[in-house]
Design brief:
Layout lengths: L4 H4 L6 H9 L4 E5 L3 H9 L4 E4 L3 H4 L11 H14 L4 E5 L9 H13 L5 E3 L4 H12 L4 E6 L5 H4 L9 H17 L3 E5 L3 H10 L4 E4 L7 E4 L1 H4 L17 H17 L11
The structure holds 3-methyl-2-oxobutanoic acid.
The site of 3-methyl-2-oxobutanoic acid has 11 residues, from strand 6.
């Protein structure tokens, strides 16, 4: 088993790097990013993959779901992230409504994401229903990451954000979908909010890496929404989120101190003036 440091030295993470990491059993660290400044920090800190997630709809724009975000908005966020990255692989979500209709429409959106935004790969939610679109995109030379389990773009179909595939039939369907996505050419699959044992089985069954979120430690890698793991969001507390920092508190303290200084004529001082 390799150490992660051999992959930390990789000048550019590619889909092949992820395949090698999976073979070497080196866990892949993926995080979301939506802007240049954060992308620079996350990239320099060693994140292997930066996902320009449609969770931007929630954490950047304040929408309740991921549904409203548009292709143009995803392109804007991706362009900013790509400018901040020198090592990580940048993967962009294709937003709701931009690929489900047919393979031609899906390919058109994926091409925009690559040409206009400069992304390195795209991510799409769903199994059998989108396999045909994935095949068309992959055949055109664009790497695709799949996404199974809890698929937030289908929230109105399921009605809840509960753990998925807890029933045997649903688990069986997820296994079949994972095989289908691999056959369609996906280079990796996100498994969101499914039982850890099922995610570990699916990871074992596949040759491509799985990336878990709320799917246990048996996946080939992990992803979290950066705003959650940094503690910028405070009202979203599912058990799968580990808070590595409490930035909302840090920012609140800093801003309170600034307001106090301004009110007291303590900012700026002589050294901070011309
Ligand atoms: O949009 C997103 O942030 C995602 C991750 C939660 C996997 O799809």
């Amino acid at each position: 088993m390799s150490t992660s440091s051999s992959f930390a030295d990789v000048p550019r993470v590619t889909t092949q790097t992820l395949q090698e990491m999976r073979r070497a059993e080196t866990p892949i660290a993926m995080l979301t990013a939506y802007d240049y400044t954060s992308a620079r920090i996350l990239d320099a800190a060693g994140a292997d993959v930066l996902l320009v997630g449609d969770s931007a709809s929630n954490v950047m724009a304040g929408h309740e779901t991921t549904l409203p975000i548009t292709v143009d908005q995803m392109i804007y966020h991706t362009q900013a992230v790509v400018r901040g990255v020198s090592r990580a692989l940048v993967v962009s979500d294709l937003p709701f409504g931009s690929y489900q209709g047919n393979a031609k429409e899906a390919l058109h959106t994926a091409i925009r994401m690559m040409k206009e935004a400069g992304s390195h790969a795209v991510k799409m939610e769903g199994g059998a229903g989108v396999a045909q679109m994935i095949r068309r995109i992959v055949d055109s030379g664009i790497p695709v990451m799949g996404h199974l389990g809890l698929t937030p773009q289908s929230i109105h179909k399921f009605g809840t954000y509960k753990v998925r595939a807890t029933e045997a039939s649903e688990a069986e369907e997820l296994r079949r979908d994972a095989d289908l996505l691999q056959e369609a050419g996906c280079f990796s699959i996100v498994l969101e909010k499914v039982p850890a044992a099922l995610a570990a089985d699916v990871t074992e069954q596949l040759e491509i890496p799985t990336i878990g979120i709320g799917a246990g430690v048996g996946c080939s890698g992990q992803v979290l929404v950066t705003h959650d793991m940094l503690g910028l969001t405070t009202d979203f507390n599912p058990r799968f989120v580990r808070r590595y920092a409490h930035l909302a508190d840090t920012i609140t303290e800093a801003v309170e101190a600034y307001v106090t200084d301004v009110r007291a004529h303590q900012f700026p001082n002589a050294d901070e003036s011309y």
